Amino acid sequence: MIYNEFGRLKVFQEPQINTICDKIYSEVVNVFGSACSMKVCGSVGRIFHGILSDNYIPKDIDLVCTNYFVYRMLLNRLPKLFPNYEFRIDNIRMILFTEHIAIEIWKPSRKSPAHLYQNKIAYTL
């Protein structure tokens, strides 16, 4: 299954960023059956919630996995999905450096309530 909510909703002005996020979410959906295993967080989550202005330009995109199985799967698959991008791992996250923006994928930490952006994309504050 191909996840395409970022592109369909035009979440980011740069179409390639939407495509990259959709590709990451597609991997999660294809393995775990649902996009609920990932949530947008950080400044993009605050934009979705209306705390930050739509004009705010985030320095990166933060995604958090809801469990370690999702994180470990992405840890193995992302370097193969995006071989032309730099990829770094530290003890709390993995970072994919695209030509436009860094995408940080965080290990699960605390439970926080999920909200839905446009009734499609889960996010947390």
Compose a concise summary of this entry.
With 125 residues, the protein is an alpha+beta fold. 36% of the residues lie in helices and 24% in strands. Helix 2 (15-32) packs across helix 4.
| SS-based class | alpha+beta
H-E string: HHEHEHEEEEE
CATH topology: Beta Polymerase, domain 2
How does the major sheet shape up? 5 strands, mixed
Principal-axis shape? globular
Beta-sheet strand percentage? 15-25%
User: How many separate structural domains?
Assistant: 1
Write out the strand line-up for the largest beta sheet, numbering strands in chain order: 1-2-5-4-3
Q: Tell me the name of the CATH class.
A: Alpha Beta
Q: How many helices?
A: 4
Overall strand count: 7
Q: Runs with pLDDT <50, length 5+?
A: none
Proportion in helices: 25-40%
**Radius of gyration from the alpha-carbon trace, in angstroms:** 13 Å
Q: How far apart are the termini?
A: 28 Å
Quote the average pLDDT.
Answer: 93
Which architecture does the CATH hierarchy give at level 2? 2-Layer Sandwich
Task: Outline the structure in words.
There is one protein chain. The protein has 125 residues and is of the alpha+beta class. It has a single domain, classed as Beta Polymerase, domain 2 (2-Layer Sandwich), CATH 3.30.460. Helix content is 36%, strand content 24%. The strands form two sheets. It has a five-stranded mixed sheet. The protein has a two-stranded antiparallel ribbon with strand order 6-7. It is globular. The model has no long low-confidence stretch (mean pLDDT 93).
